[in-house]
Amino acid sequence: MTKKMAASFIGGIVISVAALYFAFRNVPLLELFKYLATINYLWVLPAIAVVLLSFWLRAWRWRIILESTSKISIWRAYNPMMIGFMINCVLPGRLGEVARPVILQKEEKVPFTTGLATVVAERVFDICILLLLFMLTVGMLQINPDKNVIFGSYQLNLETLQTVFNGLLKLGALLILGIALFSIGKFRKIIYQTILALPELLFFTSEEFKSSVRTKICERIIGILKNIATGFILIRNPKKLLFCTVLSVLIWGLAALSYYIFSLGSPGVNLTYLEITTVMVIVCFFISLPSVPGWWGLWEAGGVFALSLFGVTTKEAAGFTLANHAIQIIPVIIAGIVSAMVLSVNIRQMSYQGKEFQKEQIVAKSEWKK
Predict the structure, then answer these.
(1) Please, which residues bridge with residue 157 across strands?
(2) What is residue 147's predicted lDDT score, i.e. its pLDDT?
């Protein structure tokens, strides 16, 4: 391990410890440990089994989205996907979303931009289901505006929840609109023609220079956009679109079920499946905020806030959320490591390529603004 990697690792631990401190600073640690000891961990195995089943369905959904470009088996989609989720759990910046298309390009020869577009399409399904669940579950609650959980610089309350909801709603609408427009052939044709015509704005240069710009820049951009369009081709097939929607409902239904199964062995957390689904949705909304790898701390703070809405004490809410958090992500990390071993993937290299891609996007945006 290099000094840079060691420093990054130690920094991540420090941040995570600080995050957990903010989440649990008002919880008596002795009582918390006593509560953790009272949990019936026999419910862990079925809860983990349900978590892994939900990820298998995710691989199935991704395979369907990928069919427009590459017909691969569920397991060949499963390994890159699990590596991506594992990276999201252990490294900052959600680099796993970029690592997935990188691995797909290496293993299945799918263009990077096409793979990235399928990941975006997959995220649209998740956002839509979460927004729908939010409206169906949280909408039935009368949340006290004064209910407040402090986490570092964040105040997790009704206002924060509404802000996150509005942000995800706008993001979801923007992504859906973009995918829909990009799936229309005539719209893409107009974009391509516009890009090819851009060199004409350089009227003060020679024809040779404009031709060079058109060949080296414009045509390459069009090639990238065509790859992206291929990744969004799913929207043209109503049957596949419906099937992916059904799978998305099942995926999140199973995710909530894993919460519920574990709650059966957790003293003081006597919630119905619908109520535990509400807790899951609120936690998911809060961890969409910028946070440390694995969402440690912010996840727990969101869980304490959500469970308190149903009368669960702070000690019991903190204990359940901490243990459940581990159950939700540790199997994913282990599965991701196994998948990396199966594909002989260098995680460090994938993370580096993901960071390089993000840097390129930042540079491109700054250049565009200039």
Answers:
(1) 148
(2) 73
